[in-house]
What does this fold into?
Amino acid sequence: MAGHSKWANIQHRKGRQDAKRGKLWTKIIREITVAARAAGPDPDSNPSLRMAWDKATAANMPKDNIQRAILRGAGGADGANYEEVRYEGYGVGGAAIIIDCVTDNRTRTVAEVRHALSKNGGNLGQDGSVAFMFQHCGQFLFAPGTSEDRVMEIALEAGAEDILTDEDGLIEVISAPTDYAAVKTAFEQAGLAPEVHGLIMKPLNETELTGEDAEAMQKILDVLEGLDDVQEIYTTAVFDEAD
It folds into this structure.
């Protein structure tokens, strides 16, 4: 099987997201609003809001925009009544996909997700059809060149479950969801900045795709990411770095 680079895949995905920054801001504002409505406006006591705030900061969103979204969510009066919903399905080559959405109209959203999948060679599955292929966890990814010993020391002291280093030198730290905030704080206090971090659905196994299959799968992901209601996409698919 052809090799792939997780680091190359991460950089590729970040580049695509940066190119869609305007739409990214809209999605983050929805996430902030929902988080503030669900558990209050204080990010120190609301981990979901803290994570959404961090995403907003990383996307260079002005603080005023963030605070307006929090007030709108905490007030619960203005704007649409958004809710979180998850869909599961398959892409090319049996690759599993989880699609997390924030929507004010479930009927519209499921129709758009189903169409995006079926038109491009995938299909929408039933609830639970692929969730068992993923682990809900906290994830921190450090760029090649970061001190593995230092990351390991801080991570283990903070309660992380696992530290993995791949052949590119990318360091991945995994924590239980309940320990995510503590591990994140420990890294911040140690001056260690992960390239990517968050609560994710981590695939337990990978589906490696190359050539036309990789291109077709990337098209599915691009179309899904282009939907206004889609917030996060998780997949077992990984791509040859040449694709």
Q: What stands out?
A: Residues 102 and 215 are 27 Å apart (CA to CA). Helices lie at 6-19, 21-39, 47-58, 63-75, 106-119, 148-158, 180-189, 211-225. The mean pLDDT is 88.
